[in-house]
Amino acid sequence: MSRPTGRVLTLLELLQSGGTRTMTELADRLGVDPRTVRRYVDHLIDLDVPVEAVRGRYGGYRLAPGYRLPPLMLSDDEALAVSLGLAVARRSGPAATTATASETAAAKIRRVLPERLARRLDAVLESLAFTAPPGDFAAPDPAVLLAVADAVRHRRPLSIRYTDRRGRRSERTLHPYGLVAHSGRWYVTGADPGIGEDRTFRLDGITDARILPGSFEAPDGPDPARRVLTAFATAEYRHEVTLRVHGTIEEIRARLPVHIATVQEQEQEQEQEPATDADPAAARWFRVELRAERLDWLPGVLAALDRPFVIERPDELRDLVTALADRLAAGARRT
């Protein structure tokens, strides 16, 4: 499709979304001058699309009321966006009717897609995992997403250009295990053969992804979603925190979920266990480890946890917890 023809179709899409579009808005959205916009409008009129000119200060162009739109046409990127949106809707829909409608809509789109695009969309959907019921997700770069999904599906090495959260750029090879949607972002997890370790990367930090020759075998062990959550809990941050907490695993995980902390049961505890109203068979000492860029949020979490705990490190956390306890005590005494 030539660029002018593509812009004419984009103009039609803008107009069919409803309302009056000003000349300035249309020129900005299409990246052309007002004279070219008028020429594109003439093209639509030649195709029997009833475009009306609206005069006045807030004038522009609009479609005639009651105009029945032609059959829906989606670009490759739009089809990918719709399919991903329906996948998220099926995951998060609160009612069975919502899930059913999403599934049937996705099936209808899938049936009319060109086979080439359909295979690539299947690769994305088969490679995708969720860590929890999702909320709003920022759309990833379709080219990056499709390349990563193809590499995951066919167990092919992947070359990526990546920019981390500190703005550092790097190029590396990845053996991708899976795509994961977590807390509004998309991630790919896999092995970095250059360092011999598993790594997790945000898709919005990948500016280029190319499939390389060869193949690899995915290792046994946790699924991709569990790998991503574990990567968050063990990521390199400023502070390394070690605690011992007495309670049940459910009580601890309620405040310190799997993507924040690792929790391991203590084999033996020499000191006497405190009294607890929880099930004695379930309440025990656990070792909790986490990493954080800041510590100021942890005293409140420990207070809300409301279970006996011991801070092993760092000493700075002890000072912050003591300061919070003093402020709470002072507030309780205030009249």
Descriptive notes:
With 335 residues, this protein is α+β, with helices and mostly antiparallel strands. The protein has helices spanning 3-16, 23-30, 34-46, 76-92, 96-112, 115-127, 142-154, 224-233, 249-255, 298-305, 315-333; strands at residues 51-54, 60-63, 128-130, 158-163, 169-182, 185-192, 197-202, 206-211, 239-247, 261-265, 284-292, 309-313. Strands 3, 4, 5, 6, 7 and 8 form a 6-stranded mixed sheet that branches. A 4-stranded antiparallel sheet has the order 10-11-9-12. Strands 1-2 form a two-stranded antiparallel sheet.
List the helices and strands and how they pair.
Layout: H1 3-16, H2 23-30, H3 34-46, E1 51-54, E2 60-63, H4 76-92, H5 96-112, H6 115-127, E3 128-130, H7 142-154, E4 158-163, E5 169-182, E6 185-192, E7 197-202, E8 206-211, H8 224-233, E9 239-247, H9 249-255, E10 261-265, E11 284-292, H10 298-305, E12 309-313, H11 315-333
Parallel strand pairs: 3-5
Antiparallel strand pairs: 1-2, 4-5, 4-8, 5-6, 6-7, 9-11, 9-12, 10-11
Helix pairs in contact: 1-3, 4-5, 6-7, 9-10, 10-11
